[in-house]
Design a protein that fits this description.
With 294 residues, the protein is an alpha+beta fold. It contains four helices and 15 strands. Strands 8-7-6-5-4-3-13-12-11-10-9 form an eleven-stranded antiparallel β-sheet. A two-stranded antiparallel ribbon has the order 1-15. A two-stranded antiparallel sheet has the order 2-14. The protein is globular, with a radius of gyration of 20 Å. It holds the Pfam family Porph_ging.
Length: 294
């Protein structure tokens, strides 16, 4: 069962996690355009009929790009409206967080000029920077062409993460970016899929960000850590998630934690605890990760 949480006040999570700060955080770019992808991923090969589906958005800048969940952004907007209505009624609920098993909370920031890739993920409300190996893909461009979304596209093949990808890019949109970690072609990648169609990025629309106020930048003061340390600290946080949620919320009579499932039904604390215990006892259903060689 998918679950999301409203956390109305934030408190930094402290744990045994190695931290540093990156100069990359000071670099900023302005979004000149954006492209939406309908992302499909067969995470469990025993349940191909039930793949993960999510809407993703890629912001394109002059020298940086940012890839994140559009599904998450829409859900957060719904929560902002609800919180705004509650604030109008005199309640003191200011900040919140969202969490769902099938919604991506991480963001990817790519800088081709400096060959840097930074992943941003959260533990509770606190964001962390996680540097990753810069993806280098040796593309083979073919003479095959087709029209996608009204744009003339050309076919290319490339291996990455243990998968062979077929992609379609358009020189008519001269950005060397694409969905997720796929990039490096002389034009924007509009569509991509691996050889088994276990991973698909389907074109969902392109938009010029005229007079855009969308900034492509890492969150201010987000500490840098390793993936190993991050996952260890996140597991510790989620092991006592309800306790940590209560620690985040201040002792204010007008502040409370609200738990709801995907249908909007509110959960009791006992229902939430039972759900988390059930999830902890489940075997990991992801036997087909995005990167097979990790």
């Amino acid at each position: 069962m998918k679950t999301f949480f409203f956390l109305k006040r934030s408190l930094a999570f402290f744990g045994t996690i190695g931290l540093a700060f990156s100069a990359f955080a000071q670099e900023k770019d302005q979004a000149l355009a954006s492209v939406v992808y309908d992302f499909i991923h067969v995470t469990d090969t025993n349940k191909r009929e039930n793949p993960k589906k999510e809407s993703m958005i890629l912001y394109l800048g002059k020298f940086m790009s940012a890839y994140k969940s559009k599904t998450l952004a829409l859900k957060l907007e719904e929560i902002r409206k609800e919180v705004g209505e509650e604030n109008d009624n005199g309640n003191k609920r200011k900040l919140f967080s969202f969490n769902s098993p099938n919604v991506s909370n991480d963001e990817l920031f790519l800088n081709p000029q400096k060959q840097k890739l930074i992943r941003v993920d959260k533990i509770g409300p606190t964001a962390y920077q996680i540097p990753e190996d810069y993806p280098i893909i040796n593309w083979k461009i073919t003479n095959q062409t087709k029209i996608i979304g009204g744009y003339n596209c050309q076919q290319a093949f490339g291996e990455f993460g243990g998968r062979l990808y077929t992609v379609w890019f358009t020189p008519e949109i001269p950005f060397p970016y694409g969905p997720w970690k796929l990039h490096g072609l002389p034009g924007l990648i509009l569509q991509a899929s691996d050889a088994k169609n276990d991973v698909q990025f389907n074109y969902g629309g392109f938009k010029k960000e005229l007079d855009s106020k969308v900034s492509i930048a890492l969150p201010d003061n987000a500490p840098q850590t390793t993936l190993k340390d991050f996952m260890k600290a996140k597991a510790a946080f989620e092991k006592n998630l309800m306790f940590n949620q209560k620690a985040i919320a201040p002792g204010n009579a007008n502040t409370r934690i609200v738990l709801k499932d995907q249908s909007g039904r509110q959960l009791s604390e006992n229902e939430f605890k039972e759900m988390m215990e059930s999830r902890a006892n489940e075997k990991n259903p992801i036997n087909n990760p995005l990167e097979l060689n990790k």
